[in-house]
Amino acid sequence: xxxxxxxxxxxxxxxxxxxxxxxxxxxxxxxxxxxxxxxxxxxxxxxxxxxxxxxxxxxxxxxxxxxxxxxxxxxxxxxxxxxxxxxxxxxxxxxxxxxxxxxxxxxxxxxxxxxxxxxxxxxxxxxxxxxxxxxxxxxxxxxxxxxxxxxxxxxxxxxxxxxxxxxxxxxxxxxxxxxxxxxxxxxxxxxxxxxxxxxxxxxxxxxxxxxxxxxxxxxxxxxxxxxxxxxxxxxxxxxxxxxxxxxxxxxxxxxxxxxxxxxxxxxxxxxxxxxxxxxxxxxxxxxxxxxxxxxxxxxxxxxxxxxxxxxxxxxxxxxxxxxxxxxxxxxxxxxxxxxxxxxxxxxxxxxxxxxxxxxxxxxxx
Length: 365
What we know:
Blueprint: H1 2-19, E1 21-38, E2 41-48, E3 55-65, E4 68-77, E5 95-102, E6 106-114, H2 116-122, H3 134-137, H4 140-143, E7 146-157, E8 160-167, E9 180-189, E10 192-202, E11 208-220, E12 223-234, E13 269-283, E14 286-301, E15 304-318, E16 323-336, E17 353-364
């Protein structure tokens, strides 16, 4: 009888724990047929959508009591056309983190996560949440998109959200080598929000990438206005280790600075980037998005500057709560040293112009 009651008590405890926990399997597929001009002419083929990367994942939370929960998220990216893994082939290359969340004291997460500056502008001040092809997302190469070995803290203080983040370099003999430290503040007000962010990344040879960013957004009925800027300064010779090498800043998608190599040019490269965008939803089934981006790249090559400009437009037809189809078109123009920049965020194999268009089907599950 004692064993029966013990077993029943254990079952009740397990049931209670299960009732306070949740694990969700989710995903998104955004696939397109895309036309793109290239150095050799043009291509037409399957491509990931211009807005979102394909992914599936698991996320969950367990209520620990006292307003505290244990949380986690594992997210894998993949190529629908081939079935191959994205993000350098990492199993959970999009996200892999675990943390604690408290109603009063904020959220602490540890693992592979979005970088602080990308997280700041993409999910607050970009009209499509960062984009997913070079024509819509090339600003990410100035700051990096995801960082391994990252500790992040976030909390809200009234209308202000604070986020601080440190990515450990993991390099023997140096705590700084391969590390990145970021902080951001976002102020929310009626109809919109505004914020600032800053970051510093250290490569394996004492060179630094220093980034500053600001942004703002405002909604007025069916119209949304977006803008943000990035000032990215890379020391001469700043370099990033190869993907999956385990070296400094590997798997981050930060671009290097080989054209201003140490000993060849002593001044840093400076990319001054700005994006403005607008969204318009005149009816529940239709949404229109437009954006213009500009980058002035200083010291692309010794004594030479360049510019990058891109404009894109999207017409989105919403079929259901989970599925939509959209048409995207983009045009990019390079000038000066950016035309042949091997370390630029957007290049066309020596061509000054690039044109692309795609028809996408997107569904959530």
